[in-house]
Design goal:
Layout: H1 2-24, H2 29-60, H3 68-100, H4 110-137, H5 152-180, H6 183-199, H7 206-227, H8 232-240
Helix pairs in contact: 1-4, 1-5, 2-3, 2-4, 3-4, 3-6, 4-5, 5-6, 5-7
Function: Potential subunit of the gamma-secretase complex, an endoprotease complex that catalyzes the intramembrane cleavage of integral proteins such as Notch receptors.
Subcellular location: Membrane
Protein name: Gamma-secretase subunit APH-1
């Protein structure tokens, strides 16, 4: 039973991220480099947040639950700051690739790098969020035996999946806002990230955290879809699987063999 819980929760939490990486990133070396670069910047944010927390605890001389919301807010701001640093680095790399190409165009577009960068942030964040939980799910023990919620592992898996998708969507919106210099878009990304982090403090009241986070994920996904240039017409066209004819074949009577008299 423990193995089934472990595999099921891992598939829920990291399955979408693994599918997106394999289907959209793994075949292109440049996108893999962007993926690793995004993960590196997220790890920088984690390191900075850990150092800040250690210094904070040493200076205050206490470590209690009252400091956790402030630590979470600082971690969110550091992640978004590193996302901005990743954007600036990728912009310079894009300009360098464009100068080396024959036609003066970069092989990567802003939308693709934004998507891959967000996916890398979400994947590495999800891995750090769920690894210890998956290790505990392998046993021994029974969830909820001391009166705690028996849905801890499954809800943690769904929360991790939502976090991976949210980071992917945030990356698309954030890069577009930076490119267009739209402070409102940046503020909404940071605000929604803060809101998501704050909702997790409602656990183990999972009805109050999981539902709003998934609603936020859906709304953010629609926003990212619109930002990336998607439309409802394109979705219907994709689902219909209809291809427009490239051309029509024409018969010329002059090329036909005349019938024998």
């Amino acid at each position: 039973m423990a193995a089934a819980v472990l595999l099921g929760c891992a598939a829920i939490a990291l399955g979408p991220a693994a599918a997106l990486v394999l289907l959209t990133v793994a075949a292109e070396p440049l996108l893999l480099i962007v993926l690793l670069a995004g993960a590196f910047f997220w790890l920088l944010a984690l390191l900075a947040a850990s150092l800040l927390w250690s210094v904070w605890v040493q200076l205050s001389g206490r470590e209690d639950a009252a400091l956790l919301p402030l630590g979470a807010a600082a971690a969110v701001l550091l992640q978004e700051l590193c996302r901005f640093a990743c954007f600036k680095m990728l912009k310079k790399a894009d300009a360098g690739l464009a100068s080396l190409s024959k036609d003066g165009r970069s092989p990567l577009s802003l939308r693709r790098t934004a998507y891959v960068s967000g996916l890398s942030f979400g994947t590495i964040s999800g891995l750090f969020s769920i690894t210890n939980i998956l290790a505990d799910s392998a046993g021994p023990g029974t969830v909820g035996i001391h009166g705690d919620s028996p849905y801890f592992f499954i809800t943690s898996a769904f929360l991790t999946m939502a976090l991976v998708l949210l980071h992917t969507f945030w990356g698309i919106i954030f890069f577009d806002a930076c490119e267009r210099r739209r402070a409102g878009g940046l503020g909404l990304v940071v605000g929604s990230h803060m809101l998501t982090s704050g909702l997790t403090f409602l656990n183990p009241w999972y009805e109050a955290s999981l539902g709003p986070i998934f609603i936020l994920t859906l709304c953010t996904g629609l926003w990212a879809f619109s930002t990336a240039g998607g439309s409802f017409h394109n979705v219907l066209k994709c689902l219909s699987c209809k291809q427009e004819p490239e051309g029509q074949a024409m018969l010329y009577s002059a090329l036909q063999v005349p019938p024998e008299g």
